């Protein structure tokens, strides 16, 4: 009965949700920051922050690390972490404290788990042991995984614990395969509601139901139309009952990198759209949020996608962004340093290099307030126990930053950034002439998130294969140093300039490497 009451509450909230969709994509960033930003340390492609009660930070590195970091920037590696497949958008992703951490000292990790047929999203739980200058994970166990594995990025991998601390919500991205987001037999493109042990939570919309014993697996197609007839590369057979229907809370999501409960108990999700159409959604049980049937964006290759306005049977976003902000995460602020922002949410921006504050009306509506230009790709923003804002930079090395009110004293043990725009996004290492080093430059600067290079990468931007047949080395270098303001389709180009992010030697060798790639690797 209690679970039915909870579900009824969420359904009642749906009727009071906002009906008008707001495009916040044209909002301009304010370069004048209302806080002081101080760089504390750096890590290799940092992804996610989780604060311990004493103010220390656990920070994941996408390349496969987990660090315990003090507020002075002292770093201790955490031992016994699981193996990850660091490739494209995959790697070590989320870290979250158990809602009962004070008693059990458990943490949860989300990551791309390597396997024979590619990789899969995995959710693991372990106990954190901290000693003198040492930290380790004990008893690590995978409590949920996507068994079908396969190719593609967009893992999702966000976790939010229910306000009653009994359940966890897990976002599972569509892995760039699109159509599984509408298949009730596959977890891809879904929001799952699980127990703290990773089992289907009671009270879910399809509690007790099981799905098909086998599901088709496809490779990422070129667009939503091609996805409809994509060839099946293999068939996955579940080792036991397919519990996907019983786990599912909502369907039709794409790249869900933000998930957080508001102070009033509403659950909000923030996701990447394709070319345009990032979304902020109010997540309600049993609802279908439309991907890949509809979107306010279009496919990266220009193939149109029907607008959500054409499908009143599907749930629309409360806010969407055209052009995109490329969100890194979503969190609600509650703290002493910025009391004027209590109850607001903050979204980190990757391509937009921005921090966005969002306000809510308590009736299911929301709107963006300020948007600040940070000068670096903001992967994650979190609030510390003392109320300071902490941000990490999506780069290798990527900065770890603390934001405090203007005029507040800053610790002398941290190095204050002169301006956000001056934050380094990459540093060269010796032996830049080797192909392996050039590949590390590509990985460190996240080129594969947008471009296809060799057989790997995404399709957000044009393929870099075969550039030598169409562009001279001077033209390739010019595009890296001074990217055009607009894409070939006429939309704003999210690619930053790499003129100050690569050494002259790295730039020369990267240009030479790209110019030698065949058009069909």
Could you describe the 3D structure shown?
11% of the residues lie in helices and 34% in strands. It has an 8-stranded mixed beta sheet, with no helix packed on it. It has a 5-stranded mixed beta sheet with strand order 1-20-19-18-17, with no helix packed on it. Strands 25-26-27-2-28 form a 5-stranded antiparallel beta sheet, with no helix packed on it. With 521 residues, the chain is mainly β. The chain is globular, with a radius of gyration of 22 Å. The chain has 7 helices and 30 strands.
Question: Could you list some keywords that capture this structure?
Answer:
521 residues; mainly beta; five-stranded mixed beta sheet; 30 strands; globular; disordered N terminus
Q: Based on DSSP secondary structure assignment, what is the total number of beta strands?
A: 30
Instruction: Give the termini separation.
Output: 58 Å
Q: Which blocks of ≥5 consecutive residues have pLDDT under 50?
A: 1-18, 412-433
Seen as an oligomer or otherwise, the chain set is single chain
User: Which strands sit side by side, in order, in the main sheet?
Assistant: 3-4-5-6-10-9-8-7
Strand content: 25-35%
The backbone outline, from C-alpha atoms, is globular
Radius of gyration: 22 Å
Q: Please report the number of helical segments.
A: 7
Q: Give the rounded overall mean pLDDT.
A: 89
Structural class: mainly beta
- Largest sheet, strands/sense/barrel: 8 strands, mixed
Helix % is 10-25%
């Amino acid at each position: 009965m209690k679970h039915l009451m909870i579900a009824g509450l969420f359904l009642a909230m749906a009727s009071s949700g906002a009906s008008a969709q707001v495009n916040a994509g044209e909002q301009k960033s304010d370069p004048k920051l209302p806080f002081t930003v101080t760089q504390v340390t750096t890590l290799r492609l940092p992804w996610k922050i989780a604060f311990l009660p004493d103010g220390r930070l656990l920070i994941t590195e996408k390349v496969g690390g987990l660090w315990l970091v003090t507020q002075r920037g002292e770093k201790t590696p955490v031992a016994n972490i699981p193996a990850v497949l660091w490739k494209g958008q995959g790697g070590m992703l989320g870290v979250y404290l158990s809602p009962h951490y004070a008693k059990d000292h458990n943490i949860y990790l989300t990551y791309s788990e390597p396997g024979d047929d590619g990789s899969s999203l995995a959710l693991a739980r372990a106990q954190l042991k901290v000693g003198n200058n040492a930290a380790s994970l004990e008893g690590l166990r995978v409590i949920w995984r996507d068994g079908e594995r396969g190719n593609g990025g967009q893992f999702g991998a966000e976790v939010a614990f229910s306000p009653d601390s009994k359940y966890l919500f897990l976002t599972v991205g569509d892995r760039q395969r699109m159509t599984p987001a509408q298949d009730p037999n596959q977890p891809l493109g879904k929001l799952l509601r699980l127990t703290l042990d990773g089992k289907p939570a009671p009270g879910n919309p399809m509690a007790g139901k099981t799905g098909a014993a086998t599901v088709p697996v496809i490779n990422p197609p070129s667009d939503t139309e091609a996805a409809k007839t994509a060839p099946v590369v293999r068939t996955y057979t579940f080792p036991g009952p397919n519990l996907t229907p019983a786990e599912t809370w909502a369907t039709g999501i794409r790249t869900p990198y933000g998930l957080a409960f508001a102070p009033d108990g509403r659950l909000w999700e923030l996701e990447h759209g394709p070319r345009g159409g990032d979304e902020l959604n109010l997540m309600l049980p049993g609802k279908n949020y439309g991907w890949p049937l509809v979107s306010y964006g279009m496919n990266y290759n220009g193939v149109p996608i029907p607008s959500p306005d054409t499908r009143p049977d599907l749930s629309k976003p409360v806010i969407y962004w055209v052009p995109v902000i490329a969100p890194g995460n979503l969190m609600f602020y509650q703290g002493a340093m910025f009391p004027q922002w209590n109850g607001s949410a903050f979204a980190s921006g990757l391509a937009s290099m921005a921090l966005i504050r969002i306000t809510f009306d308590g009736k299911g509506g929301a709107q963006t307030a300020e948007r600040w230009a940070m000068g670096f790709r903001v992967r994650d923003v979190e609030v510390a126990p003392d109320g300071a804002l902490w941000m990490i930079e999506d780069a290798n090395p990527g900065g770890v930053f603390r934001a405090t009110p203007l005029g507040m004293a800053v610790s002398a043990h941290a190095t204050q950034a002169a301006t956000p725009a001056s934050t380094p996004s990459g540093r060269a290492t010796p032996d830049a002439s080797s192909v392996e080093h050039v590949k590390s430059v590509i990985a460190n600067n996240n080129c594969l998130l947008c471009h296809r290079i060799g057989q790997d990468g995404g399709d957000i931007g044009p393929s870099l294969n075969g550039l030598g047949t169409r562009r001279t080395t001077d033209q390739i270098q010019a595009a890296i140093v001074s990217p055009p303001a607009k894409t070939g389709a006429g939309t704003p180009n999210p690619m930053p300039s790499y003129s100050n992010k690569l050494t002259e030697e790295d730039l020369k060798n990267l240009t030479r490497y790209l110019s030698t790639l065949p058009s069909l690797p």
